[in-house]
């Protein structure tokens, strides 16, 4: 799991370096979650999850409040959840999740980001079967043994626990996300380095240097798109 954690770190570091764009995307995601259920995270698990993620990216309170207030105000702006699948250089695999109020625009933009960078879009199901939906929660200040003890006492099952770079990373089934967090919170742990529902590749690939440079340019182009919320792939980006 170590290489997979490295890819998550690289992705998060990239997002941390583009805060204004990331904050705007979280604003949309929070609005959509609040509008589709109660605008209260205690009764809306989807909203609660988004807010937990937003916390790990230090999203300002005023952005969160503005998105929730917009949902409370009965805004009629609606968004569609879309998933695109495609291939990058050397057959690398990519999944793109988007929230959009203009499906045609988003499809065109995603297709162009693939095509201009040595990739191409595939049909639905052409890539996703090679990825596993996974909850990933990271924390600092505990050892792998201490984390395992906390989870065992809470009777929470997880896939794997690794200790790396002064962090402990827990991989679990998506439906165990809140159970894992509650176990930690009951143990007095309230700060997390990562709290994501992600798509982890079953097998990662290493690209030649020239292909990796082209691949990273393609990923950057996809992540820069206004409507794109998440990009997952199966390339080992290295240290």
Automatic annotation (TrEMBL):
**Where is this protein found?**
Cytoplasm
Query: Where's the TACO1/YebC-like second and third domain?
Result: 79-235
Query: NCBIfam families, per this entry?
Result: PRK00110.1 (NF001030), PRK12378.1 (NF009044), YebC/PmpR family DNA-binding transcriptional regulator (TIGR01033)
Q: Which Gene3D superfamilies match?
A: 1.10.10.200, 3.30.70.980
Q: Which UniProt keywords apply?
A: Cytoplasm, DNA-binding, Transcription, Transcription regulation
What family does this belong to?
Belongs to the TACO1 family. YeeN subfamily.
Known Pfam families for this protein?
TACO1_YebC_N, Transcrip_reg
The molecule here is called Probable transcriptional regulatory protein F4694_000713
Q: What is its main location?
A: cytoplasm
